[in-house]
Structures are given as C-alpha cells and as structure tokens.
Amino acid sequence: MAASQINMLEGSLTKPLFQFAIPVALIGILQQMFNTADIMVLGRYVGTEALAAVGNNAPVIGVMVNLFLGISLGANVLIARRLGGRQLKEASGAVHTTVLMALLTGLFILVAGEILAGPLMVWMGVPEEVRAASEFYLRIYLLGMPGMTLYDFLSAIYRSHGNVRTPLLSLITASLVNITGNFLAVFLGFGLAGVVVATAVANYVSSGLLLRMLRYEHGVLHFYPGAVRIRWEDIREILRVGVPAGIQGMVFNLSNMVIQSAINSEGALAMAASAAAYVLEINSYPFIIAFGQAITTFTSQNFGAGNLKRCREVVRRGLCLNFLFTCGLIGLVFLAARPFLEIFGLQEEAVDLGVMRIHLIIGFYFLSTIYESLSASLRGFGNSLAPALAMLVSIVGTRLLWLATAYAANPTYRNIMYCYPLSWLAADVLIGALFWREMRKQRLTPGSP
Q1: pLDDT of 132-148, one tens digit each?
Q2: Of the candidates 118, 169, 181, the residue with the CA atom closest to the CA atom of residue 144
Q3: Which of 7, 36, 98, 449 could bridge 75 with an S-S bond, Cβ 3.0-4.6 Å?
Q4: Separation CA 65–CA 8 (nearest Å)
C-alpha cells in the first residue's frame, strides 16, 4: 500500500482511526480558518462593524459548508464501499461522476445564494447599521462556492481510498494564500472587500491543486476528463446517502440562524462576542466530525467487504476515541478562552459574554461525540435518512421550543445558550435508539448469533 494510504480492512483500529481523523480535523479547521482569518483581521484592523458583518454570515456559510460536506460524504461512502468490495471499475466511474457533481453543485449554490442574499439579511433581522456590509460580504464569498464544493468532493474521493494527507497539504497551501491575501488587502486599504476576495481565491487554489494531483494518480483515483459523464445510478446513490447527511449538518446551522436572530436582539456587544467565541467553536468541533468521518469511511469499506463484526468494532473504538479526545480538548479550550477572546480587541463586557458562551457550548461538546459517532456508523451502513430526520426533530425542535418558551419568558444572553446542550442531549437519545435498531437489524448487538 502507498505510504499515504490507510489500511481500513485489516489489523488494529486505534492507530488507523487516529491517522485518519486528525488530518481530517485539520482540514476542517483550515477550511474554517478562511472565515476565522477574516474575523480576526477585520476585528483587529478594520472595526466592530466589519466583524459583526462576518459574524452574521457565519451561520449562513455554515449551512452551505455542511451541505457540501454532507453530499460529498455520499460519494465517500459509495466509493469506499466499492473499493472494499474490490469493484474497481465501478469505483473509478463513481470518481468521475463525483467531479461533475461537485462543479454543478457549486454553481447551483452560487446562483441561488446571490438571489437570496438580500432577503436572507432581512429574515435574520440583521441590524440596519451592518446589513449592507453583511450582504456585501456574503455576495462576494459566494463567488468562491464552486471552488469550495470541488475541494470537498475531491477530498471525499481521497478519503474513500484512505488518503487524507494529500487533501491536507493542498489546503495548507490555500490557507497560506488566504492569510497572506487578508493582510495584503488590509495593508492596501481594500478592507472588507479585499479580505473576502482573498478567501474566494483561496477556495479555487485548494480545489485546483487537488484536481491537478488527481490527474497524476494511478489506478482507481486517476482522473481523466474524457471519462466524465453522468452516471445516474451513482448520482442516485450519492444523493441517497449525501443529501440526508447534508441536511443533518445543515440542521445545526439552520437553527443557529434562528438563534443568531435572538443574539442580534441583544445588541452589538453580544453579536461581536458571539462572532469571536464562534471561532473557537468551529475550530474545536471539526475533531468530533473527523472521528465521525473516520467511522463512516471505515464502516463503508468493511461493509463492502462483508466484514460486519469489524464494522461494530469500528464504531465502538471510534466513539471511545472521540469522547476521550473531546474531553481533553474541552479542558484546553477552557484554559485558552479568555486570552483568545482578548485578541479580538473586544470590550471587557463582550469578553465576559464570549467566555460564558464557550463554557455553555464547548463545555458540553462531549454530548456531541455520541450522536456524531453513532450517526456516522449508520451512514456507513447506507442508512442516512433516519438519523437526519432524528437530528431535525431533536436539534431544531428543542432549540425552537426553548427560544419560544424559556427564552421568551426570560430573554437574556445566557438563556439563549442553554438551548445548545439541551438539544444535543435530545439528539443522543434519538440517535442512540436508531443505532440500536440498526445493530439489531445487522445482528451486531451483544449476544446476537
């Protein structure tokens, strides 16, 4: 096997799961760093208004990013399953279909986003003083969508083959381009416009590098433009797994958009505090998602190979690693929270609000490891719709109910934050029940014949 490829079908699971998850988490962090770099540069060198404009768009961008990641996960599952079953010709066909889907998906989101950008700002209740800047930022950001989708889908192709190093290296290069472009934009006086253009360009750098490297791969991963065509069977399977997975990821951000409206009503300090604290959140959560993606990919390959008992061991080991790693991460974040928030130049009151948010959200991330790991295993078996619906009911339902009752009765910033851990606890219960049912179906519960 190539040095960059992880063997998912044989041997110990602990080390391979870590080898897979950590680079995938770093990829997630680097992708989020595009937005993080915008927030830090604008907050420090441009002003609170520009910072609030980016913060308002964070949930919107999160919706799009999670949609792409979800649909690309469908490609990951399909290709990994065919590789596990040694269906190499079919896997190669799925690779080429995936590239075409990536471009079409990105173009669709670009057009739809440009049409809806203005009404979206009104629906979210963005204050008049930052509405124009928020809409301007979003419209330019959307220009980079085809590049972002192409990168996500190409990364899924590499992950299905056990190669997480190549996508990471291409994204590191793009991140350097983005950070350099941000500071150059501020230095030249382009402000908000220059910063967001740098981010859009970086998206095309990451996808362009990955596509070029795919052209020089051998075997299943080799990309030949002449072989690109619509394969409806592959598209249906990718969408069957990917769309529910995308919806599951979008659920968080759709509910966060409603929560952002409540935060906006608390004033500019609360908005700026949330934007800064959100940076730590989006750079911590990728580790939880990464272990989930490892579980999905390992399960898919072993399911394709017919090794169901190893599938059970994958989720057991993956969940334990996810939980323990996240608990350690929570401790580190708590130590760094206040010094980190002070980097943004926030007023003391805003820093206090940011620390409160971190304690009430990141402090309960251990709950997220349960539903993320179990739903990831279900996707590996090809069952993606049920966990997506369960997440919709538990996450959105719990948060909307809390805002409509408890928050409405006592409208404080702290009371907004309580809806996060409560919704995660509800998700653990529902996803846990679905997982147990799937294990019984696959005859993988303890004591099953």
Answers
A1: 778 888 888 889 889 98
A2: 181
A3: 98
A4: 27
